[in-house]
Amino acid sequence: MVRNKYLDKNMRYPLAAPSWGGEEIQAIQDVIKTGQYSMNKKVEEFEKEFASMFDSKYAVMVNSGSSANLIMVAALFFMKEKSLKPGDEVIVPAVSWATTYTPLQQYGLHVKFVDIDLGSLNYDLEQLESAISEKTKVIFAVNLLGNPNDFKKINSLIEGKDIILIEDNCESMGAVLDNKKAGSYGLMGSFSCFHSHHIVTMEGGVVVTDNEELYHILLCLRSHGWTRNLPQDNLISKKGSDDFKERFRFILPGYNVRPIEMFGAIGLKQLEKLPGMIKIRRNNAEIFQDLFNNNKSFFMQQEIGNSSWFGFALMIKEGSEISREDIISALDVAQIDTRPVVAGNIANKEMISKYFDYSIYGKLKNADYVDSRGFYVGNHSVDIKDNIYYLRDVLKNKFGN
């Protein structure tokens, strides 16, 4: 049974487990020996490897998945053509993490919430279709808990329309739909390398794109908005001949969301392991599905394409007398780590009503259902068969399932 000394030594089924070995520790030591801690060659090498692995021309590493979402949204405001402006409408699913949404507020966009599907936990595609209007400029797809959206359907909905598709793929690294990696379906896609995610670089995130102009904008936004890190022949600003002035020339209102060099060095080792780690996650998922697919009290997330199974969501079935409070209490006693389904229905959170320009399309009944009757447990990059059986036994003994 997996025990995770880095998170909570008392947990018999922790949310996440370390995926590092001696290779990652050595990679850190190698960077320390160079004395070059800020972003450098290892980050650049990681970006090239990452882009290749995830069906994209370009990758830009940043300090977190949240920052990846931030500069991804920001970049849409600085394109030479069809750039966004404050007040433009962005459609989002009602269930995701907070930093899917906060960049939209910070850039003054109108956020339209659409319900999710109780099977996939991604967009309710019928409601999405109805929600698209002449005002819609962006559809922000979130691939939840490892599960890709039905991009064939989404692309059919926006075909011939002046609508941009972007992806929050922070929880779904390695997911595949129709032989194409999730995160590469949109104009841009974001990824996370946080400690509980598919690869771990301490912190860290990535944006991928095939669009060269956006790539150059992302590079600029990542580092203060200056031109220093741009190629000489870039698509957003012609570089001058005075190198001293050019290194301190600021052209966009950017950030410092750069990764440190260690992130890139660790990431290279983690990418080598990723295919094997995804395979183990899918093996764990097969066991989980066998045990819970026909459970009388719970239903679980239904896979689209090939999920990379970030975690395992369970929702209490309609009519069951079990309360989520009793479940969470029982699992806490059994030392099984649990979380809400991401952040639940984000439209119910106080930050939305206080600070967002937003609207809700129709009803968010499925998002509310997940918010009040859902939870998830972790999946790991190591065999957790015993942990999954332990979860099943605890629920069975306590609630008769």
Short synopsis of the structure:
With 401 residues, the protein is an alpha/beta fold. The protein has helices at residues 22-34, 41-53, 65-75, 98-106, 125-131, 151-158, 212-222, 243-246, 261-292, 324-333, 350-355, 365-373, 385-399, and strands spanning 58-62, 89-93, 110-114, 136-142, 164-168, 176-177, 180-181, 188-192, 205-209, 298-300, 311-316, 358-360, 374-378.
Give the proportion of residues in helices: 25-40%
For the record, the CATH architecture of the largest domain stands as 3-Layer(aba) Sandwich
Strand content: 5-15%
CATH topology of the largest domain, by name, is: Aspartate Aminotransferase, domain 2
Task: Let me know the average pLDDT.
Answer: 96
Number of helices: 13
Order of the strands making up the biggest sheet: 1-9-8-5-4-2-3-12
Which consecutive residue ranges, at least 5 long each, have pLDDT under 50?
A: 3-7
CATH superfamily of the largest domain: Type I PLP-dependent aspartate aminotransferase-like (Major domain)
Structural class, from secondary structure content? alpha/beta
Q: Which value, in Å, is the CA radius of gyration?
A: 21 Å
Tally of individual domains:
2
Alpha carbon gap, first and last residue: 21 Å
Largest sheet: 8 strands, mixed
Protein described:
With 401 residues, the protein is an alpha/beta fold. It has 2 domains: 22-268, Aspartate Aminotransferase, domain 2; 273-399, Aspartate Aminotransferase, domain 1 (Alpha-Beta Complex). The protein has 13 helices and 13 strands. The chain has helices spanning 22-34, 41-53, 65-75, 98-106, 125-131, 151-158, 212-222, 243-246, 261-292, 324-333, 350-355, 365-373, 385-399; strands at residues 58-62, 89-93, 110-114, 136-142, 164-168, 176-177, 180-181, 188-192, 205-209, 298-300, 311-316, 358-360, 374-378. The strands form 3 sheets. It has an 8-stranded mixed sheet, with helices on both faces. The protein is globular and about 75 Å long. The two termini are 21 Å apart.
